[in-house]
Model the fold of this input.
Amino acid sequence: MGTVGIIAEFNPLHNGHKKLIDFAKKNGDTVVCAISGNFVQRGDTAVLSKQKRAEIALLSGADIVCEMPVLWSMSTAQNFAICGVWQLYNLNCDTIVFGSECGDIDALYKTAEILMSDEFSYLVANKVKSGVTFAVAREESAVELGAVKDILSMPNNNLGIEYIIASEKLSLPIKFRTIKRLGENHDSMNENPNFVSSSYIRENIISGNIAYTERFMPLALHGIINENIVSDIKRIDRTVLGILRTKTPDDFKNLPDLSEGIENKLYFSIRVAKSLEELYNMIKSKRYTLSRVRRLVLSAALGFDKKFFMTTPPYVRVLGFSKKGEQQIKNIVSIVPVVMRATDIKDISEDSKRIFETECLATDLYALSFKTPLECGLEYKYKLIKAE
Done:
């Protein structure tokens, strides 16, 4: 039946994710997951390390788990999608499945086609010039060209559309399928008997209510999470701010997803802010959402630049596999190298070496976000996970 891929953060993996994995298993011989690294798209640390989330994904039915490098996992939806789709294609996936609020793949395909059209770009540009915000201009223009009303107002719909667009732009022969997302909205703090948002679960895990959150996770995961493996970005608040205060104005000029001279505001705000939360509030605006500001701040702290923004990663790093996944890896024919050991990455190319060096810096910072800080060099200490 082919190989089915899933792009996800699994931050953390819950019953909704398990439903998606089960759907993928019914539609393919092998299930491959591309997961975020130790920093995630909303500009935050992942509540569990990528190593632990890979282990949990394998316990939940995945056959191969690869990581999305931090330059892509903590980025815009477009960049995130490019990375995930590219990696899954290189692991021989012919189909990608995802959850969406609408559950209508035809509507999502149609919207993707609209968003790629010249007419759409023209309409959006004119609306923005008239004073409308980009988000409103985007939604209104799409509806005028035939998109379902409010389809772009939902985060999972948007991400699924970006997957489709990424596949088209990269000319990849991938099919997409979607299932309707159940339960609460993406950032909802409401409780539902079976399906709640990842945000709700994260907040409870970080607050110490780990046993309570298990009701929203697959049974096989109960007892795995404990307070010693939980990351909280608040623990590195002053560390990040301290790093930022050592930067010069020139250090902010080449950040990815930068526009409108925001680097100047960022630099001067850093000189004044006494916490990350205060810094975020000083910079955010209608144009710069909180998630975008958080990404920008952490990107500056980690020394990101725009060289790799909206490009494809030059390698795929596998974090773990099942016995079935191991057999598939032996037969993979990929465009870019598929690696299992960190030591192999630096020999691929200079770009690969540079990307991995950034990954190491990010993980060294991430290591300080635990109850008991961890040592440096974890990227070289992560062990390949082999599930039974």
